[in-house]
Amino acid sequence: MIPAKFDYIKASSISEAISLLDKHGDDAKLLSGGHSLIPAMKLRLSRPEVLIDISGISGMNSITEDGNEIVIGANCTHADIVNSDLINSDLNILAQTAKHIGDIQVRNRGTIGGSLAHADPAADYPAVVLACDAKIVVEGKNGGRTIAATDFFLGIFTTAIAEDEIITSIRFPKVANGNYQKFFQSASRFAVVGVAAVKEGNSVKVGVTGVAGTPYRATAVENAYSGSSDAALHAVDGVEDELMSDHFADEEYRAHLAKVMVKKALEA
Amino acid sequence: MQISVKINGKTYDHDIEPRISLAQYLRETLNLTGTHIGCDTSGCGACTVHVDGAAAKACTLLAVQVDGCDIKTIEGMANGNEMHPIQEAFKDNHGLQCGFCTPGMVMTAADILKNNPNPSEEEIRHGLEGNFCRCTGYHNIVKSIQQAAEKINA
Ligand SMILES: Cc1cc2nc3c(=O)[nH]c(=O)nc-3n(C[C@H](O)[C@H](O)[C@H](O)COP(=O)(O)OP(=O)(O)OC[C@H]3O[C@@H](n4cnc5c(N)ncnc54)[C@H](O)[C@@H]3O)c2cc1C
Ligand code: FES
Ligand code: FES
Predict the structure, then answer these.
(1) pLDDT of res. A186
(2) Which domains does chain A have, with CATH numbers?
(3) Does ipTM exceed 0.90?
(4) Torsion angle of C-alpha atoms B88, B89, B95, B100, degrees rounded to 10
(5) Can you tell me whether residue A7 is helix, strand or coil?
(6) C-alpha to C-alpha distance for A102 and A98, rounded to whole angstroms
(7) What residues are paired with A203 via a beta bridge?
(8) In terms of Cα–Cα distance, which of A215, A203, A208, A148 is closest to A177?
(9) E strand or H helix at A197, and its extent?
(10) Of B76, B108, B141, which one is at a domain's C-terminal end?
(11) Cα-atom radius of gyration of chain B, to the nearest Å?
(12) Residues of A at the B interface (Cβ-Cβ below 8 Å)?
C-alpha cells in the first residue's frame, strides 16, 4: 500500500509552517507523528499534495510548568508524556491515559497535537482535555489564539482549528484527583468508550470519548453528582441521538458501556 | 528527495520518492530484508526498527521522515557472529516457530528492556501489545525476554 504522490517539505519554524499552509491551502496537510495520517494516506482516504513535516520544529516538544498550569508542546509524543515526571506528579490523569494509547511503537511516534487535531471519535485524549478544561493554543497567519477544550471538538474528525492554523501547545491546569477509564477495542487498542473524571471536593467534571461522534462533557452526570456514583445513569443524557454504532458496539451497548465506565471513573 | 540515514552504523545517501516507507526503503533499496512487512497497516509490529533508539513501525514511517536519523534494524543487533542476548534467549527458549514476527519481537523487546531492565511478566505482555505472533502463543516469547533481562543484568 503506497500513498498517492505528494511533495514533502520539512518546516523549520512555526512561521514557515503557517506560510506554507497559507500558500498551499486545501492541498496541504501538516505531518507530525504520522500515525493517523500515513495510514489514511496509504488507504487513499487522504490525498494531500503537499506534506508539511512539523516534527523538527524546535520549541514544540517541551513540557513545562507555568504557574498553576502545565504547558505541553504539540509535538510531544505519547511516550514523552508517559515519561514526564512533571506530568506523572501534577497531571497524572494524562500520564495514565497516554500509557494505554496503542502500543510502544505508536507511543514513540504519535503526538498529542496530532491526536487532538485528528479528532478521531475513538481517541483517548479528547475525554481528558475536556474533563481537565485544558486549552488548545493555536497559531495562524493572523496570530495566535487559545481555544477552550469544550469549544474545540466539532464532530467526527472535525475541530475548531482554521485551515492556516497549527496547534503549538496544550495548556492543562494541574489536576490532583483525576482518572481515566478505557474499555479497549481488543484488536486496535483504541477506546470503544473512554471516560475521564476530575474530582474536586463534591463536584466532578466528566469527559466522554467513543460514545457520540463528538466527544462531550457529561454535564447531566456532573449536575446529578454529589458524591454518589449513581449519577453515572445520566452518562448519555443529551447525546441519545448521536450515539455511534459499529460492528464492535451498537448504540444500545455503547450507551450501557458509557454508564458503566462513568461509574468506574466516579468510583476510582 | 535526497536523504542521508545512518543504518546499523553505516551512512547511506539516496534520492528517494517521499511516498516510500522506511520498511520499503530498507527492504527494496538496501536489501535489508530482516525487517518484515506483515500487515503494512501498523497493526502487527513485524516491521519494528529503532529510530534514534526508540522502537517504531517502519511501515508507518516515510523514509524521508528519518533523514538524518540513526536507525537500527535486526541486522544490526548481533556483534559479528555473536548473537545479541535477546536473540540468544529466543533461540534457547523456543521463542520462535516460523520466525516471521521475530525481528519485530526482538526490536520491541530491546525497547522494553532499555526503559525497564527488570520487567514483570505483565509489563512484558503490555510491552508486546503492538507485536503479533501467529505461532507461539507468546508464552515462550515472554520467557525469552525474561531470560534476556537476566542475562543483560548479570
Ligand atoms: C496501531 C495504532 C494504534 C493506535 N491506538 C490509539 C489509541 O489507543 N488511542 C488513541 O487515542 N490513538 C491511537 N492511535 C492514534 C495515535 O495516537 C496517533 O499518533 C494520533 O492520533 C495522531 O498523532 P500523530 O502525531 O501521529 O499525527 P499525524 O498522523 O501526523 O497527523 C494527524 C492529523 O493531525 C494534523 N496535525 C498534526 N499535528 C498538528 C498540529 N500541531 N496542528 C494542527 N494539525 C496537526 C495532521 O495534518 C493530520 O491531519 C493509534 C494509532 C495506531 C497506528
Ligand atoms: S508491517 Fe508494520 S506493523 Fe505490520
Ligand atoms: S513465530 Fe511465527 S509468527 Fe511468531
Answers:
(1) 83
(2) 7-53 (3.30.43.10), 63-173 (3.30.465.10), 178-267 (3.30.390.50)
(3) yes
(4) -40
(5) strand
(6) 9
(7) A200
(8) A203
(9) strand A191-200
(10) B76
(11) 15
(12) 1-8, 10, 31, 34-35, 38-39, 41-42, 51, 53, 55, 79, 83, 102-106, 108-109, 187-189
Grid cell listed for B50 = 529503532
Q: What is the pLDDT of residue A187?
A: 83
Please say if the pLDDT value at position A2 is more than 90: yes
The nearest alpha carbon in chain B to A52 belongs to B65
Over the stretch B95-134, which tens digit does the pLDDT of each residue have? Answer: 999 999 999 999 999 999 999 999 999 999 999 999 999 9
Tell me the CA distances in angstroms from A268 to A192, A223, A225, B127, one per residue in order: 19, 19, 14, 25
Residue in the block written with cell 504522490: A5
Residue A7 burial (CB count, 10 A): 14
Q: Which domain holds residue B131?
A: 85-153
Contact A209 CB / ligand 1 (< 6 Å): no
CATH code: domain of residue B20: 3.10.20.30
Q: How confident is the model at residue B152 (pLDDT cuts 50, 70, 90)?
A: very high
Q: Any idea which ligand is nearest the CA of B131?
A: 2
- Tell me: the pLDDT tens digits for A66-114? 999 999 999 999 999 999 999 999 999 999 999 999 999 999 999 999 9
Q: Tell me: do B91 and B69 sit in the same domain.
A: no
Give the Cα separation of B79 and A68 in Å (integer): 50
Mean pLDDT of B46-57: 98
The verdict on a CB contact (< 8 Å) between B45 and A108 is no
**What's the confidence (pLDDT) of residue A145?**
98
| Contact by Cβ (8 Å): A202, A173 | no
Residue A177 has pLDDT above 90, yes or no: yes
Chain A residues in contact with B131 by the CB 8 A cut-off are 103
Instruction: Express as a percent the part of chain A with pLDDT over 70.
Output: 100
Q: Rounded to whole angstroms, how far apart are CA atoms A89 and A102?
A: 23
